[in-house]
Design a protein that fits this description.
Layout: H1 13-39, E1 41-48, E2 50-66, E3 69-72, E4 78-81, E5 90-91, E6 96-101, H2 103-167, H3 173-237, E7 240-242, E8 247-252, E9 259-260, E10 281-284, E11 289-296, E12 308-313, E13 316-328, E14 333-335, E15 338-347, E16 359-376, E17 381-382, E18 388-392, E19 401-404, E20 406-410, E21 414-419, E22 426-434, E23 443-444, E24 450-451, E25 461-465
Antiparallel strand pairs: 1-22, 1-25, 2-11, 2-16, 3-10, 4-6, 4-9, 5-8, 6-7, 8-10, 11-15, 12-13, 12-16, 13-15, 14-15, 16-21, 17-18, 18-19, 20-21, 23-24
Helix pairs in contact: 2-3
C-alpha cells in the first residue's frame, strides 16, 4: 500500500512580501555598484613648472611717522601764557610758541649774580695774597741769604788771620790764641746764618703755597658761581619757548593758564589740544616721512639694514612706495607673550598723500633668486619618511609619476626646486576624485599620508575612468 504523500504547506502573505523585498534589495545594490563604478572619475589639475625669479619677503605692519620730530618741553615750571599755536599749526624754527610766567626765576638770577660778584671779590683778594706771599718769600729769603754769605766771608777772614798768626816769626802764642777764638766764633756764626737761611726758605715756601691754595680755591669758587649764574640766566630765558625745528604741531597738551612742572603737568584732550602725552608740544617735519613696522621674532634674523622694501597703505589704495630698512630694534617688545621687533623704513620717494599715523604694510625683500625652477607650492608633497616629491604628469599619460625633489625658499605662491625638475614638467597641484555619490577629492601621498589638494592652478586637467 503506498505511503500517503505529505501535504505541502501553503505560504502565508507575509512570506511572499519578505521574498520580494529581498530580491529588490539585491537588485538595487548590484545596479548601484555598477552605475557608481562606471561614473567614478579622477581628475588631476596640473600647472607648468617654469624658470623665473623668486622673491622672498618678510611682512611687517605699522604706521607712517615723521623722520624728524621734536618734543618741546622747556624744563622749567610756571604758568603757561601767550600760547600762539594750535593743533596742526605750521611753525618755523625759532618761532615763539608760548611764554612761562615764573617770577622766581628772576630772583634766582639775581641771587646767582650776587654770588658770582662775591666770588670775584674773593678771587681778587686771593690773587693779591698770592702776590704778597711771593714777594715776602723773595725778600725774606734774600735777606737770610745775605746774612749767610756775610757769615761765610767772616769765616774766611778769620781763617786767614789765624793762618797769619801761626806763620808769624817769632811765634806769638797770644796772637794765635786770639786768632783761633775769632775763627771759632765766625764758624759758629756761619752755622747759625745757614740755619736761619734754611728756615727762611721753608717758611716762605709754606706761606706762598698756602696763598696759592687759597687762590686756586677762590678761582674754583668763581668758576662754579659763574656757571650757576649762566644756568640761572638760561633757565630764565627758557620761559620764552621757541620751536626747535620747522614743521607742524602734531601734539598740543597745554593751554593758557596751565601749570607746567613735574607735579603740575597738564594733559588735555578737548578744545584745541590732543593726545595723552605730558609733553607740552610735539612738532613733526612732514616733509620727511618714514614707516615704523613690527616684524615677528622668527623673521628678525632674516632682516638686515639696507634691504629693499615695498609698502602699501590702507588710506591710499593703489599706492606702492619703495624704501629700504634703515634701523632695526636691538631688543624686542613683548605684548601678550608675543615678541616683535621694530623696523624703521626710509622712503625712496616722499608722497604728499601720506600723513603720520596712516597704517602701513611692508614687504621686506630678504632674498631674490633668478633663473630658478619654480612650481606652485600646492604641488609640493611629503611622504612618511620625510622625503619631498612632486607628481609629474607626462604628455599622453593618464596617471602621474612621483619625482623626488629638493626644495629651496618659498614665496607667496611658488617654491623653488633646487634639484629634481628641469622646469618644463607639468606638476599636479590637486587631485579630484568624483562619483555618483559626490565624494570630495583628495590627493594621497606615497607612504600613506593624505594631503588635501591646493588651489587649482593654470594647466591641463586629466581624467581617467575608474575601474
Amino acid at each position: 500500500m503506498p505511503e500517503p504523500r505529505a501535504r505541502r504547506k501553503k505560504r502565508g502573505p507575509w512570506g511572499m512580501v519578505a521574498l520580494v523585498v529581498a530580491v529588490l534589495a539585491i537588485a538595487g545594490f548590484l545596479v548601484y555598484s555598477a552605475v557608481g563604478k562606471r561614473s567614478s572619475t579622477t581628475r588631476y589639475i596640473t600647472a607648468q613648472a617654469s624658470r623665473g625669479t623668486l622673491t622672498v619677503a618678510v611682512a611687517g605692519n605699522g604706521n607712517v611717522v615723521s623722520a624728524n620730530s621734536a618734543a618741546v618741553d622747556p624744563g622749567v615750571s610756571g604758568t603757561v601764557t601767550m600760547l600762539s599755536v594750535s593743533l596742526g599749526s605750521k611753525v618755523k624754527k625759532g618761532q615763539r610758541l608760548f611764554v612761562i610766567d615764573n617770577p622766581d626765576l628772576d630772583a634766582s638770577v639775581m641771587q646767582a649774580k650776587g654770588n658770582y660778584q662775591q666770588s670775584l671779590s674773593s678771587l681778587t683778594k686771593a690773587a693779591q695774597g698770592k702776590t704778597q706771599a711771593r714777594q715776602q718769600k723773595m725778600s725774606s729769603v734774600a735777606q737770610a741769604k745775605i746774612a749767610y754769605l756775610q757769615a761765610k766771608g767772616s769765616v774766611a777772614k778769620a781763617e786767614q788771620s789765624l793762618n797769619q798768626a801761626k806763620s808769624a816769626t817769632p811765634s806769638d802764642p797770644l796772637s794765635i790764641e786770639a786768632a783761633q777764638a775769632s775763627y771759632d766764633a765766625a764758624v759758629i756764626a756761619r752755622k747759625s746764618a745757614k740755619t736761619a737761611y734754611n728756615q727762611a726758605e721753608d717758611i716762605a715756601e709754606q706761606n706762598y703755597s698756602a696763598a696759592v691754595r687759597s687762590y686756586e680755591a677762590a678761582l674754583t669758587s668763581k668758576n662754579s658761581s659763574y656757571l650757576n649764574y649762566q644756568n640761572a640766566i638760561a633757565n630764565a630765558d627758557m620761559r620764552i619757548v621757541t620751536a626747535p625745528i620747522g614743521g607742524y604741531v602734531t601734539t598740543l597738551s597745554i593751554r593758557n593758564g596751565d601749570q607746567l612742572g613735574s607735579a603740575a603737568s597738564s594733559t588735555r584732550t578737548s578744545g584745541t589740544t590732543s593726545g595723552s602725552s605730558t609733553t607740552p608740544i610735539v612738532i613733526a617735519d612732514l616733509s620727511q616721512l618714514q614707516a615704523q613696522v613690527q616684524i615677528a621674532e622668527t623673521d628678525r634674523p632674516k632682516v638686515k639694514t639696507g634691504q629693499k622694501v615695498e609698502l602699501t597703505f590702507d588710506a591710499v589704495p593703489n599706492l606702492t612706495v619703495t624704501g629700504h630698512v634703515a634701523e632695526i630694534d636691538a631688543v624686542g617688545t613683548t605684548s601678550q607673550n608675543v615678541v616683535t621687533y621694530g623696523v624703521n623704513i626710509t622712503f625712496d620717494v616722499q608722497d604728499k598723500r601720506l600723513n603720520p599715523g596712516m597704517t602701513a604694510s611692508a614687504s621686506i625683500i630678504t632674498k631674490v633668486d633668478t633663473n630658478v625652477v619654480l612650481v606652485p607650492t600646492a604641488a609640493i608633497k611629503t611622504d612618511s619618511s620625510g622625503a619631498t616629491y612632486v607628481q609629474v604628469m607626462d604628455t599622453g599619460a593618464t596617471t602621474p609619476r612621483d619625482v623626488t625633489v629638493v626644495t629651496g625658499p618659498a614665496g607667496d605662491t611658488d617654491t623653488e626646486i633646487v634639484s629634481g625638475l628641469t622646469g618644463s614638467e607639468n606638476v599636479v597641484t590637486q587631485t579630484v576624485t568624483s562619483g555618483s555619490a559626490g565624494a570630495a577629492g583628495t590627493s594621497t601621498n606615497r607612504g600613506g599620508l593624505g594631503v588635501i589638494g591646493g588651489g587649482a592652478g593654470a594647466g591641463a586637467a586629466f581624467r581617467t575612468r575608474g575601474d
